[in-house]
Every structure is written in C-alpha cells, then in structure tokens.
Amino acid sequence: MALIVINYFIAKVHELEKIAKELDISIHCRDLAILCRTTTTDIKITLYYGYEVKDMDQKLFDLLYAAVVNRESTYEGVYYTGVKTTKIVCRPTCRAKTPKAMNVTFYSTLEDALQAGFRPCKRCKPEANGALGPDAALAAQVDTIIETQYKDKLTLSQLAALLAISPYHLQRTYKRVRGYSPAEKTELVRLKHAQRFLLESNATIAEIGEAVGYGSPSHFAAWFSNRTGISPTAYRNGQGGGDESDE
Ligand SMILES: [Zn+2]
User: Fold this and answer.
1) What CA–CA distance (Å, rounded) separates 141 from 33?
2) pTM for the model
3) Which tens digits make up the pLDDT trace of 99-156?
4) 43 C-alpha to center of ligand 1: Å?
5) Of 74, 71, 73, 119, which is closest to residue 98 (Cα–Cα)?
6) CA of 191 relative to ligand 1 center, distance in Å
7) Which of 42, 136, 155, 180 is deepest in the core (most CB within 10 A)?
C-alpha cells in the first residue's frame, strides 16, 4: 500500500467533506490529521485548520497503542496518551480503563499534550517526578489557549479570567517561564501560522490574513511586513528581504 500525502488548506470543515465526496473516499478522523483509506491506497490529508497538526505513522501508532492496551512500560516517559473523549493525558502504563484507539492521540512530551488542551490524569499523574512545575504548567495552559484562540487576540484580562488568576500573576509567571509576554506569544503564533499557510497552501493573502485574525488584507500585509521585513507575497515567492507592497 502506498502512502500519498496531500496538503490542503481548508478554511471550512465542510470543504473537507466536499473533497472526500469528490475523491469517493471515506474519512477516518483522528484529531485534525485525517486518514482516508481507499481499497488500493492510503491517502493521508493533512488538514490545516489553525492548529498544529500532529502526524504519526500508523505503524508507530499501533505499536504505542498495543503498549497502552498491555500497560507495558516500554514507552514510559517517551510518549504520553491523550484521550480525546475525557481531555485527559496519561502515562502509557495508566491503570485506568483503556481508551479506544480512535480517541487516542500520542504526544512525545507532556507539555505538547497540555498545550493541546489535555489535563494530567489524577490516577497516573504524568506530571509527577518534576516533569513540569506549576509555573511551567500554567505557561503551557496559556499556550494552549493562545494556540486555539489566537485569531481572537484575547486580552491579558480575558486570558487571566479563563484561568481564574490575576492578570498580574499571569503576566509575571508566563514571562518568567517563557521569556516573553502572552501578547508576544499571540503574535508569534499568528506569524507561525501565516508563514505556514503562505508556503503550504494556495489560499489568497486575504484568506490567510483572515485565518490568523486580520479582517483587512492591507492590515495583515502591513503587520506581516513589519514582523518579517518582507511582504506576504514576497515571502510566499521565496524572496529573501525586500519590502515590496502587496496592494
Ligand atoms: Zn492516567
């Protein structure tokens, strides 16, 4: 069986359904990495929808999942098991009920799992043994919110309210752990997604601007040029430096 990787920029989920219909394939969805299987070929569509896509080879997944089923300690500290239905992350050896494979996402670090919105399991305590201090855990929680809501550009007060802590404590703790503020993090996340969309999708500049929170294409282009020293179009065309306009 061959594996074909197709990268799509899909602005709306219903577009994926349309594509699947056109290709006459069924969709098995595990998080945002979509695995589609036909009779002759495995077709993998990586869906960019404003999130970091975690790709994993099916063989590796099966191997890790078997370890979880058997509660083997082989991958202890190497992989963490995120359970989508409960939003809880476990050690691979957790004694709790074995989750269904379709609900599992594996993460190579606990921080990645926390950033993806999972909470540490109270039973197997994946955060124990100094993996993450409370400040680092808070920073990871902040990153999770920003990674999923960067388009909305939450204010410090809104972020703090979501975490039920004071804005002052949030700003101070986050900056100490990360070395920059939550506002700067939002900018970095927006830029990261904009750059990836520019290089890996066929979406227009306006569509990409909107996807990262800029309703106005000129506002997006000005912001992008300001951050990178190059216009979105020039960046997409692989031109290093220069400051040509997009308008
Ligand atoms: Zn657990």
Assistant:
1) 22
2) 0.49
3) 999 899 988 788 889 888 899 999 998 887 655 567 777 787 787 778 778 888 788 9
4) 33
5) 71
6) 35
7) 136
